[in-house]
Amino acid sequence: MPAVAPNAAQRTTFLRAPDATAATAPSAQWWEALGDPILDDLVAKALSGSPTLAAAQARITQARANLAATNAAFTPKANVGASAAEVALPGAFTNDKSRLSKQIYAENFDASWELDLFGANRRRSEAARDRMDAAQASAADAAVSLSAEVVRTYAELRVAQAHATLLDKQVDLDRRLLDHATQRFKLGTVGSQDVDEAKSALAQSESDTSDTGAQITVLADQLAVLIGREPGALDDLVAHPAPPLHVPSTVAIGDPARLLRSRPDIRVAERQVAAANADVGAHIADRFPKVTFTGILGLGGTSVGDAFNPGSLVALAMPQIKWNILDGGRTVALKRNARGALVEAEAKYRGTVLDALEDAEASLTRFGSQRIALAKAAESREAAEHLAGLQVQRAQGGTLSRADALKAERQALRAKMAEISAGGTLTSDFVAVEKALGLGWEAQK
User: Fold this and answer.
1) pLDDT recorded at residue 30
2) Nearest residue to 70 via CA among 117, 133, 120
């Protein structure tokens, strides 16, 4: 394999690894760290029932069949045949004035075997095996993407459900604020502007509630399709909300060398390089002579019985050397084409390795940053809740208006929704890290 990213392969940690990560070996079933049995069941169903993975498995079957067909070149070829013919020859062919007319019956068995003297068949077998390995790695890569998409969609669903619960409370607060503003307007203590502002806030909250409900339904249907079911099959998830997912305090990520071994897309590119290299070797071998051994056994004569009479046995053994020295440059052109394909495969391999490392480092950077963002969102929510509590007490004591206390409660709800959103983003970043590490496919074993 071409030497790619030698520094990364030697490092014991990622450059952008945040404090909340560890260089210990991560688990293939990484989603289990989120501690949600429903999610575990959904991922298992996706890995066993997804049409995407079924198609990938079918490509593996095709590649195995192609390997078996290629390996058949190492075995002898045999044919059995029987024939009956009516022969009529003029006297000119028999030195006789009369016309010869005969019936001939024969059966024969022939076998041939090509000696793989220069390794052409062996190299083609290597190429077929490498492509089968690439198909298996491609299926693993599909499993990585699928498991990550299931977790990400499920996490978004739970965040949306948590938002929906808080939005219901916000709608209730906005209605109370509108009632309060309307009463004060009737008393002449506030202008119509306060009423209009309250109406606008209520309308926006009701709109947000409707949008969130639609989002929940869409996400549930997306999950259903991901596990190979029809839309609507997971409506129970819509009817029974659950808390958002929580990322573990410490995430095992391993090291760059492990990533280079684990990511299936790198394995795909690596096997494609090996297959292209084997193709070059096969085309080089095609320039040399081919040695074939052929044997024929036959029985025959002018009657049906002669076709089964050992006395009429005919045997022929024939070694053959064939060297295609003049083909208009076709063999040379095919070899040149194979070398070009090899250069292309090597370039793609290098690009895949570098993209994988960049993906991992970028995912870790975003994950570390979002950890901080979530902590700040939690601080903001705590401050808003503390302030809301104080404002309620002041309103009860008569030193603050009820409207100001309600607005403080609303602000605390908004801060809570912001914290939930930050937690959802952190979960998505966690999923991106695990996907970048190439985890998830071993769950199929």
Assistant:
1) 94
2) 120
